Amino acid sequence: MSSNEKLANGTTGYKITKDDLAQINRRNLLGFQDGWNYERMQHSGYLWIILPTLRKLYGDGTPELKEACRAQCAPFFNTSNFLNTIITGIDLAIEEEEGIEGLEAVAGLKTGLMGPLASIGDSIFGSLLPTIFGALAANMAMNGNPLGIFIWVAVNILVDWFRCKQTHMAYEQGMKLVTTMSDRLNALTDAASVMGVFMVGALVATNVGIVIAAKPVIGGVTVDLQNICNMICPKLVPAALVGFVYWLLGKKGMTSTKAIFIVLVLSIALGAFGIICKG
């Protein structure tokens, strides 16, 4: 079937091959973050890694291709570099099966999975593995053992292999999700969300360092506000800061860039007056 001949779902009937998935993996490893920006973060990089495949699915220069590209760039998108192709594989499986009729489902998939996968992937592959194997390699290097560098390189090769492998796995599983297992997609999203919320809570507690430095004197008694917050709930102040930023992002016209500047200005001002300090 030529690219000008369309099926009812707007596709050319093209079936994605292993070579297509390999091309996606190469682009993902080399340039997924190149288009990163504060407004929509990874949305352009995501489109770039799948664009050659979309051209084959919808036909080059067709209205369907333009609609698919606009849909991919419309939502805010940001997830872990180590697990992003799980979403990509399922996305392409849906679009291959349903075409432009599946773009709404794709948008929901990206929104539902990007947060949970970000917290899980960054925690395991961005923090845990580098900490363990980086410390091991550094300790061996300090002792004059060159084997540490090979361990570090081997771990990173395995991680990149896993990143490539999951594209194929997600695509194959995605075909099942859109044919015989569509009822399990919501369960997958819910399970990832629960794990993601758990990991986000751990990341907030360990990576957001802010304490109340002010100790007002009331009736001749010095009140340690930070200690009171700790008794109510450990890490309450970092959690409150994250909640404040979340509230800001829900306001109309608010962007992540504006939220960053607001937090920056408040931090400088409150720090200058001795109200807060770095934890």
Automatic annotation (TrEMBL):
One Pfam family linked to the record: EIID-AGA
PROSITE patterns assigned: PTS_EIID
GO BP annotations listed: phosphoenolpyruvate-dependent sugar phosphotransferase system
Protein name in the entry: PTS system mannose/fructose/sorbose family IID component
TM annotation in the entry: 147-164, 185-213, 225-247, 259-276
Keyword Nucleotidyltransferase attached: no
Keyword tags: Membrane, Transmembrane, Transmembrane helix
A single cellular component GO annotation: plasma membrane
Organism in which the protein naturally occurs: Collinsella aerofaciens (strain ATCC 25986 / DSM 3979 / JCM 10188 / KCTC 3647 / NCTC 11838 / VPI 1003)
